[in-house]
Each structure stands twice: as structure tokens, then as C-alpha cells.
Design a protein that fits this description.
about 70 residues, mainly alpha, 2 helices
Amino acid sequence: MLEQTILESIVSFLDIRHIDTSNLKERQTMILNSGILVQGGDVRAESLAVGTGARAIKKGTAPKAVGKGAGA
């Protein structure tokens, strides 16, 4: 929240002085949404962790038993 307030104050200050802030606004979005950025694609993962201190743990699964059929 502090980052957002500071960045918005800087953008407002520069906008009042008619200074182009388009790059700063783009960067602000990236900073505030620091996580995964996907453009025109898919995210496929067995485990995924996003954010500071996040952890993803993949639990193993037991292999399926291959048994003999009823007629064997």
C-alpha cells in the first residue's frame, strides 16, 4: 500500500507539470503486480507459488498398480 501511494504521488506530481508519465505508469503496474506476467499464453504447472515467501510443494503420487486381468 505504501508503494502504491508513493508511486501515485510521483505520477500526480509529474502529470501536474505536464511531464510524460506513461512509462512510469507501466512500470508501476509491473511493480505492484510483481508476480507472474503472462501475455498471450498459458501457464501450466504442477505446482506454482507466487509472492514473497511463497512455497510450492509437489506431493508425489503412488504409481498405479498394474494387475492381471480377470481372465489371466
